[in-house]
From TrEMBL, chain A:
Protein name: Glutamyl-tRNA(Gln) amidotransferase subunit B, mitochondrial
Keyword Chaperone (UniProt): no
Organism taxonomic ancestry: Eukaryota, Fungi, Dikarya, Ascomycota, Pezizomycotina
Predominant location: mitochondrion
Stretches for region Disordered: 68-88
Biological source species: Aspergillus pseudoustus
Family from the record: Belongs to the GatB/GatE family. GatB subfamily.
Automatic annotation (TrEMBL), chain B:
Annotated organism of origin: Aspergillus pseudoustus
Subunit structure, as described in the record: Subunit of the heterotrimeric GatCAB amidotransferase (AdT) complex, composed of A, B and C subunits.
Reported function: Allows the formation of correctly charged Gln-tRNA(Gln) through the transamidation of misacylated Glu-tRNA(Gln) in the mitochondria. The reaction takes place in the presence of glutamine and ATP through an activated gamma-phospho-Glu-tRNA(Gln).
Assigned protein family: Belongs to the amidase family. GatA subfamily.
UniProt keyword annotation of Transcription regulation present: no
Name of the protein in question: Glutamyl-tRNA(Gln) amidotransferase subunit A, mitochondrial
Subcellular localization: Mitochondrion
HAMAP family named among the record's database cross-references: GatA
Catalysis: reaction(s): L-glutamyl-tRNA(Gln) + L-glutamine + ATP + H2O = L-glutaminyl-tRNA(Gln) + L-glutamate + ADP + phosphate + H(+)
UniProt keyword annotation of Zinc-finger present: no
Length: 601, 507
């Protein structure tokens, strides 16, 4: 069976014969040419190339000056683009519908017992039916339905008691049967919706909240992976073939690019929160196709209708977008292209287009004349899918809390977090960070039950800062993945508790956190004791002595602060005092107060 | 050593009848362990513990049924070199029962044809000769190889597939018995799909009793075939036919036999009409009653079949694209820029024969966005009406679609239908290949007019050889005509019993 991956096959993937342009980049070469000819070269590039020829010295402009000019003109360009955007938005209404393909978190393939584990060895997880062996038949794996149903319930869909599988025909080497099994005529879930809020990153024009309808969700097979070795070799790995996917189709109810990206992002986070998928877009677990149309607001409604929503302009489809940014950028580019075509008196063709990351334009993959007729046919071998209400009710009752509910809880009185801090807590590490945060808060509450109510109210916010920013900063700096055991919730709570009780300074708290992060295993109390870090407050006299010493060393700075009233520079003196004073004893607030007294007044 | 003698005679016949082209691969060409296997079976019989009634019997399989030990070509160039890594369930079942693979029989490519002439390996020829030295007669199709192998004693019995009559028509043309069971009773795992919703595995043999022996082994649920009838449904079907009214049929009460008036067409050849009449007369003499019935959708059924079957075929055959199955067309790598976009077209153009290409085109058309409403969906409607036609004439309700509990106690329908298998005797092969191709395609389709309705409805049907001679007219053997018995879904046992009543009574 390994032999299969070495099968030579011609690069049949020309834009005309490839109906989907997924999982391969055969068009890359022509695409690079394309971008090179249309990209706007920054002006300094031109200038520097001129410089290589002898030139008048008066024509020479310093690089610094040049860079400043560039920055200025790029700013101006951006402003102009923004204004054009605004003008175009006023005149043209953009309408977007999204189709998201998500790999389900299942043990087996959709129609065979072959494992879905990604394997190093190509073509090791394939059953006879996955390879479409003559005489083989599908065996629907009931368990694959569960993550699909969880997703559909989380997306507020109506689960259909009867649904069926259809064959979608097209020739491509990653498709062993010559057709994909999907649910075209009767999908298993319909009529859902997704709520998008400001904090989800929707466009300002959409206000605080919009709801986007979900037309349907269908179960279907994934394709094989092909790898190209030009000029004439393609390797095929069928491990991925027939991996269960769901395709989520929204109604064309999105009118801003940022909102479309927010929708895809939110769908991913919902699918992850209900354990329907294993990986997100970054690892190819999610892919999006986008339908884009525009119509002039002042004119009569357009003649086209999609998903029961009428009055739209002719749409185009952009295939296979693999990042949130690509979704947003591709929509902007395609909208602009359509507007340009229409404004110059042209007509939009219903066609399929592609997008390459970093590009500024979508590119035509195939037009209407090259459109594939998929010849959808009910699969005669697969029985209808009957889903009982009891199963749906059971799954709905045991579904994990959806992100929106978690957010509500975090910004509520229990935790008092800002939405900016609450969101990453929910999103990061599939909720592992949130769990850790909640542990820290619980322990802190226990430790601080003797403190006044005011301090306790603040506890959630303070802990959020330490979990996200201090600990998060260390992770980012060290480029390490999240690990709850690196600094235990117990230790972090102890650090915060000591800080809150003013037993240590902020600087000390960060220092201990760093030590623990780097592997110090001592309990916080012992560490503070042994390293002599517990705050012994300085007297006022000691502060004045320190401040005067610092001032004496830097008289010119003092002068600047006094003459130009540059109070910001006081902080620099605070730092000096901390460095000069005994480690861990200088409290920044007190030092600044003394400095103000001495320098300003 | 009687089994060994029998087997040796079959294998010897395989050699002497090579010219009939019944086999693509057989035992006389591939020296195998068959002799040892038969001897072992003989020993088991002597010791009184044979594996089954079929222990030690040589059974031939149509070459669209997967076997591990012999190639499975479907008589197509595209699968010329294909050997399946697994055995079809029916092969496993019969081998477990002690039967021995007698070879793989020739057929119309992928089962598409009515005369077994559309084969990569050349046409199958019937042992029966025409009166006027017109040469070999058609063996019928598409299981023509299986039928000829049985008719000329090259095997004990043979397995075929029947999608629209592919077992029954060859049985009728070669003078043997050919049985198509109810859809879903016999596993299709390992049977290369032509039109899944119609495909059934059938049995050909010289006598109905042999067919029953084979069918008894095959009539099992197979979890690997999603359309195989599960055990619960099987018992439900069985219990329907055990009701007091139906269980007495043929035992204490005579049968009500239906004669579909729409089948009495003017094109019916005289021997066929005579054989039909003889059969009905014979049944009447045994005390059964004859009743004219109407199946009004008969005429539309053939059209519906030739839309549905090619539609499914166009889908099923998409996999033979030269990447995994099928031999890639020559030169596509060498001459890449010019041909890459035509890789599939070229490979498939070279790999498939004329009739297969014709049906793929028909199917692709009737499924296309602009045509599906007028063709595919209409044909599906007709298919439902055909089923309704049959339900309306049978005394037994359809055991799976009828609402349980609502028993119509005084239904007056018939128990079985008796009608010809084909409207005319077999044509000569030279007639088929000489006349212009378009005409012969349509003519060939007409042969299926009486077999297709049972396929669309999934009903059990059997073709039995009955003499169509008029008094003092030639040899009985040369005037054998296929007479078909059709029963309600799941009434396979009754159909087999009626076949036994018809055969071998000097008719």
């Amino acid at each position: 069976m390994l032999r299969l991956c070495l099968r030579h096959s011609s690069r049949a993937a020309s834009s005309l014969t490839c109906p989907r342009c997924q999982h391969h980049n055969v068009l890359q070469l022509s695409n690079i040419n394309h971008t090179a000819s249309t990209i706007q070269l920054p002006s300094y590039t031109l200038f520097r190339s001129l410089q290589t020829t002898p030139a008048d010295s008066k024509d020479r402009i310093s690089l610094r000056k040049q860079l400043k000019q560039d920055a200025k003109s790029s700013k101006a360009q951006k402003r102009q683009r923004r204004e054009q955007e605004a003008a175009s938005r006023e005149k043209w209404e953009l309408t977007v519908g999204v189709e998201i393909h998500a790999q389900l978190n299942t043990e087996t393939k959709l129609f065979s017992r072959a494992s879905t584990l990604s394997s190093e060895i190509p073509n090791s997880n394939v059953a006879l039916f996955d390879l479409a062996f003559p005489g083989s038949q599908p065996e629907f794996q009931v368990a694959t339905l569960l993550p699909a149903l969880r997703a559909a319930i989380a997306l507020n869909c109506e689960i259909q008691p009867v649904s069926r599988f259809d064959r979608k025909h097209y020739f491509y080497q990653d498709q062993p049967a010559g057709y994909q099994i999907t649910q075209y005529y009767e999908p298993f879930a319909r009529n859902g919706y997704i709520d998008l809020y400001k904090h989800d990153g929707i466009a300002a024009e959409d206000g605080d909240h919009i709801r986007v309808g979900i037309k349907q969700i269908q179960l279907e097979q994934d394709t094989a992976k092909s790898q190209e070795y030009p000029p004439s070799t393609q390797l095929l790995d069928f491990n991925r073939v027939s991996h269960p996917l769901i395709e989520i189709i929204t109604l064309p109810q999105i009118h801003n690019p940022a909102t479309a990206a927010a929708l895809v992002r939110k769908v991913q986070s919902i699918l992850q929160s209900c354990n329907s998928v294993t990986t997100g877009m970054e690892l190819g677990g999610l892919r999006a196709d986008i339908n884009v149309s525009v119509r002039q607001r002042s004119e009569d409604l357009g003649a086209h209708q999609y998903g029961g929503i009428g009055g739209l302009g002719q749409r185009t489809e952009i295939k296979n977008l693999s990042s949130f940014k690509a979704v947003e950028d591709a929509i902007i580019a395609e909208k602009n292209r359509q507007v340009t075509v229409l404004e110059s008196g042209g007509v939009i063709e219903g066609e399929t287009r592609g997008w390459t990351i970093g590009s500024t334009e979508t590119r035509k993959l195939r037009g209407k004349e090259g459109e594939v007729d998929y010849r959808y046919m009910p699969d005669p071998d697969i029985l209808p899918l009957l889903i009982g209400e009891d199963l749906v009710a059971e799954l709905a009752a045991t579904l994990p809390t959806v992100p929106d509910t978690l957010l509500d809880m975090l910004v509520g009185p229990t935790y008092n977090l800002s939405i900016e801090d609450a969101k990453p807590l929910v999103d990061l590490e599939d909720g592992a960070r949130l769990e850790y945060y909640q542990d820290v808060v619980d322990i802190l509450r226990e430790l601080q039950h003797d403190l006044p109510a005011k301090a306790q109210d603040d506890l959630g916010r303070v802990a959020g800062n330490w979990v996200l920013h201090e600990l998060g900063g260390l992770l980012t700096k060290a480029d390490l993945p999240w690990e709850a055991e690196r600094v235990t919730s117990q230790s972090l709570a102890a650090i915060i508790d000591n800080l809150q009780r003013k037993k240590i300074t902020g600087a000390t708290a960060k220092q201990i956190l760093g030590m623990l992060f780097d592997g110090d295993r001592r309990p916080v109390a012992q560490l503070l004791e042994e390293e002599n870090l517990i705050l012994r407050p300085l007297s006022r006299e000691e502060y004045i002595a320190l401040a005067e010493a610092a001032i004496e060393l830097n008289p010119s700075m003092v002068e600047q602060i006094r003459s130009k009233n540059q109070l910001g520079k006081l902080g620099w003196f605070v730092g000096q005092m901390m460095r000069m004073g005994e480690k861990g004893r200088v409290e920044a607030q007190k030092a600044e107060a003394i400095l103000k007294e001495l320098i300003v007044s | 050593m009687s089994l060994l003698l029998e087997a040796e005679r079959f294998v010897a016949n395989q050699s002497s009848y090579l010219a009939l082209n019944a086999f693509i691969n057989n035992l006389c060409r591939s020296a195998g362990r068959w002799q040892d296997q038969v001897k072992d079976a003989d020993l088991r019989w002597e010791q009184g513990n044979p594996r089954s009634k079929l222990d030690g019997r040589l059974i031939a399989f149509k070459d669209n049924i997967c076997t591990r030990n012999l190639p499975t070509t479907c008589a197509s160039k595209s699968l010329e070199t294909f050997t399946s890594p697994f055995n079809a369930t029916v092969v496993e079942q019969l081998e477990n029962a002690g039967a021995i693979l007698a070879g793989k029989t020739n057929l119309d490519e992928f089962g598409m044809g009515s005369h077994s002439v559309h084969s990569r390996f050349g046409p199958v020829k019937s042992a029966r000769r025409g009166d006027d030295d017109a040469g070999y007669l058609s063996a019928g199709g598409s299981s023509g190889g299986s039928a000829v192998a049985v008719a000329t004693d090259q095997c004990h019995s043979a397995i075929g597939t029947d999608t629209g009559g592919s077992v029954r028509l060859p049985a009728a043309f070669t003078g043997v018995v050919g049985f198509k069971p109810s859809y879903g009773l016999v596993s299709r795992w390992g049977v290369v799909a032509y039109a899944n919703s119609l495909d059934t595995v059938g049995v050909l043999a010289k006598r109905a009793s042999i067919i029953r022996d084979v069918f008894d082994i095959l009539n099992q649920h197979d979890p690997r075939d999603p359309t195989s009838l599960p055990p619960a449904s099987r018992s439900r079907v069985a219990s329907k036919f055990e009701t007091s009214q139906l269980s007495t049929r043929l035992k204490s009460s005579p049968l009500r036999i239906g004669v579909p008036i729409e089948y009495n067409i003017s094109e019916l050849a005289p021997p066929v009409r005579r054989a039909w009449y003889h059969s009905l007369e014979h049944m009447r003499q045994q005390g059964h009653t004859i009743h004219p019935v109407s199946l009004p959708m008969t005429k539309s059924a053939l059209s519906a079949y030739y839309i549905l079957a090619p539609a499914e075929a166009s889908s099923n055959l998409a996999k033979y694209d030269g990447v995994r199955y099928g031999t890639p067309a020559d030169g596509h790598i060498r001459d890449q820029d010019q041909t890459e976009r035509y890789l599939y077209a070229k490979t498939r153009g070279e790999g498939f024969g004329y009739e297969v290409k014709r049906r793929i085109m028909l199917g692709a058309f009737s499924l296309s966005a602009d045509a599906i409403d007028n063709y595919f969906l209409q044909a599906q409607r007709i298919r439902r009406l055909v089923r309704h036609d049959f339900d309306a004439v049978f005394r037994a309700e359809h055991p799976l679609t009828s609402i349980s509990g609502v028993q119509q106690s005084d239904r007056t329908g018939v128990d079985v239908l008796i009608c010809p298998t084909a409207p005319s005797p077999p044509p000569s092969i030279s007639d088929l290949t000489n006349s212009n191709a378009v005409k012969s395609s349509l003519d060939a389709y007409v042969n299926d007019v009486f077999t297709v309705p049972a396929s669309l409805a999934g009903l059990p049907a059997i073709s039995v050889p009955v003499s169509g001679r008029s008094d003092g007219d030639g040899h009985a053997d040369e005037n054998l005509v296929g007479i078909q018995v059709v029963g309600q879904y799941g009434d396979d046992e009754l159909v087999l019993k009626v076949a036994e009543l018809l055969e071998g009574h000097g008719l």
